[in-house]
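Recall the central idea of this unit: under ordinary conditions, the amino acid sequence of a chain determines the structure it adopts. In this exercise we apply that idea directly, starting from the sequence alone.
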Amino acid sequence: MTFHPRRVFNKQLAGIACAAVALCAATSALAQDVKRAKLGHSFADSHPRAVAMKQFAAGVEKATGGKVAIDVYGSAVLGGEDKMLIAVQSGTQDLYMGALSPISARKKELQIFDFPFIFGSDAEAAHVLDGPVGRKMLDGLADMNVQGLVWAGGAFRNMSNSKRPLNSMAEMKGLKVRVMQSPMALASFNAMGMNAVPMAFPEVYPALEIKALDGYEHPVVDMYANKMFEVQKYLTITNHVYTPVALLASKKWWSSLTPDQQKAVQKVAEDTRAFQRAEELRQAGEVVNQLKAKGMSVNDMPAAELDKIREAVQPVIDKNTETIGKEFAQSFYGELKKFRSAKR
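Accordingly, the structure predicted from this sequence is:
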């Protein structure tokens, strides 16, 4: 038999080519099997919520054996909260973590979170949010093509401005302040005597910088994370509103998951919620001193003045209770009452 080196070489090349094709096909199939998702939020990398979402993404990948991979985009790089919520509804963004105030005009029950002084503590808020009323509110987003996973965290809001320290309700009068894009928030702050301006959050810092706004209201952790001490001189502790944030998924993406993957994602979301809340509370306990160190003047609004504010906004609360529905409001307050009774 005559030995043909070229023929043998060609066979070897053909074998290598076949192996390469098979490897590419296997790699392609594996890549297709991984369900990738985009998660967007508006918080700076140092914020506990941003840290929590990175932990959530890592937890989901681990819990699903790498079959579900989540890419996290923070600092509003995918747009403001209103734009991200629209994107989740349309299915062009898979996950969102943030406030739901931009959709509260369509989901009126959400406006209850803009009622001033509704919660007395973080524990009260967690009890209601994690209970049947909170779950019902998340499930109520289904007709917007949104799957509510968890109320992921939340914080009390306080007032800052560049004009003067606020030691009374009277000193709030006339201040041009940014409020969340919510009818209830707008009405509440106007009732306090301020000139309330609804504005998407990415626009707030520039507006404060050029003095188009005098101030805004936000949790202290967010103030620090967003370097508001650079454009705001005075911080007044009011704890006037507790704003929760939720972790949501688009129905389109959620429906693409297997039932086991959905269970895994839900479980990781609940585990991450506990971590996120703990981190938010830890940082909130430290950050006021950090804001002082950055040059902000900090004071507490006197209790008597807070009572005046409550009185001023009560008509707004009464009117909006009708708007959101008396039955819903009663169930919400009922959960609060249960918690307070159990604590006595």
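The longest helix spans residues 259-293.
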